[in-house]
Structure formats: C-alpha cells, structure tokens
Amino acid sequence: MTEATAILNHSATAPVAHKAVDNTTIVDIEKVVEELKHTKTVGKPLVNDPKFACRNVDVFYNDTKQAIFGVDIDIGKNEVVSMIGPSGCGKSTFLRCLNRMNDTIPSCRVTGSLVLDGEDVYAKEQDPVLLRARVGMVFQKPNPFPKSIYDNVAYGPRLHGLAANRAELDDIVESSLQKAGLFKEVKDRLQSPGTGLSGGQQQRLCIARTIAVSPEVILMDEPTSALDPIATATIEELIDELRQSFTICIVTHSMQQAARISQRTAYFHLGYLVEVNDTKTVFTNPQHQLTENYITGRFG
Ligand SMILES: Nc1ncnc2c1ncn2[C@@H]1O[C@H](COP(=O)(O)OP(=O)(O)OP(=O)(O)O)[C@@H](O)[C@H]1O
Which residues form the ABC transporter domain (predicted)? Predict the structure, then answer.
C-alpha cells in the first residue's frame, strides 16, 4: 500500500467531520470563484519535455456556459496523470479537449493552445480522426462494437491501413490483446461477439482496440466505474504496465485509484485547475485548501 493510499484509507475511517454542516464547511461559491479567478494553479502543473502542453484552455458550452477557465498543464511522457474533483468541475470536458472529442458536441467551443509533441491539436490541417488514433480514448462504460472480438481490435488497424496482409493484422490483434491482458482469456474464441464478454473483459477489449492503432496517449474517463473490484484491480495493474509505452490521462472519482495508479494528480474545482502535483504530495500534503477539503471529504 502506498503512503498516499494509507492516508486516504485513514481519512475514510476518520470521524466524518465533513458531514456536519457548520460554518467551517459551508462553501461560499462566489467567494471561491472570485479567489480562483485570481490564483494560479499551485504545485507542479508543468514538466520538462512534455508530451502535451496545454495553455490558457477555456471551454464554453452554448457560448453562455464556461466549463473550463484558463487551464495550464503539461502531461509528461510515460506518466499517468489523474484528474480528480467534485462532480461537474470539468474533468471530462478538459479530457475531451485533448483529442478533440468535444468537436462532436456542436455547442462546445475550445480556446487556448493544446500542443502534442510540438503540433497544435486544433490547427486547421489537423485531421481529428488521425488525432484520435494518436490520442485514444477509453470510456466509462465499456462500448465494444457489435462485432467479433477479433474485429473489434482489427477495426482501427483496418481503418488506418496499418496491416499489409492478414498475417500482419493477426499479429496486431494478438499483441494488442496481450498488452490489454486479455489474450489468454479469449484466444480460443476470437470470432465470438465482443459483447458476450464480462464487463471487465469488455473494458480490456476496448483498451486493446485503443492500443491496436499504436496511440501515443490514452485518455480514460472513469474506466473502472462500471466494474467490480476484481476487474478494477486488473485494469489498474494494466494501466501501470501500459505506462511503459503510453502517456495516460485518467479521470477518476476514486481518490484511492488516483493514489494507486498515477504519478501526478490534478485537482479541478468549478472549472479551474486548482492544484497539480506529485500524487503523494496531493494526498499527503496538499498545497491548496480546496484540495485538502476535497481529499479529506469535506465536499465532493
Ligand atoms: N454537452 C454539454 N452541454 C452543456 N453543458 C455541459 C455539457 N457537458 C458538460 N456540461 C457542463 O460542463 C460542466 C463540466 O462538466 P463535466 O462533465 O466536464 O464535469 P465532470 O467533472 O467530468 O463531472 P462528473 O464527475 O460528474 O462526470 C458541468 O457544469 C456540466 O453541466
């Protein structure tokens, strides 16, 4: 158990002071917003030689609702960054900026700069389909295509012409299933429907499908929230292995999960990026009062 996890476990069993509604726990949202407007993100939002460099990112829905305010953050190579914060604070909205998934929401507008290995993700010449192969995404609910296990994984390589022949495609399918920790369980039924697998297996199939196009970054939006603890543990182990080859950003509601799997953790609040730091620091010595309130369960 990591120190950060131990502290979290302790706070989960500590007296639940946060449940008492008294003057110390009532949050004056307007005051908080006013403060956040004038405060820079604390901790270590930037890294040397980032994979992703995001600067002054704002996101609007319907031009009237601003969901993300001036976010500056780097995502380092081969690191897992967790994004945590209360419901509605903008974690998923920000994650979706990284591979332009927000383009699929007509009312959504993103401004600022998001640079992947020196390339502007929002440049006119950027093809979002190719971008999403480089920056893959795994969703909350496993969403295999209504196709065989084999065809789920082969879908992306076929679309992007990554295999010259059937043998190459077979190799990509097998190695992707291997990396996703699923091959042994499905090798004798590759032609069976992907939807016939258990929830945890389906999520690993979706991870295999993402890996099959050799992405550089994998975005995960609450990838284990629909899974039982055993399937969750399997995916968490997998994330740790995948970090050797990929950069990973994960949105999670589980602080224990963030503590277990990520090197840095980013705390969002009301659309502002309040704090980013080494995961251990965030959970053992948070620098911002709002982060501390959240991790000790005062709100969220
Ligand atoms: N398609 C949309 N249209 C309008 N507003 C939206 C849309 N999607 C999200 N929002 C709003 O943007 C804000 C941020 O939402 P988002 O889903 O990014 O938060 P979140 O932190 O991921 O929340 P949760 O943890 O509950 O999933 C919220 O106020 C939400 O209501």
Answer: 52-295
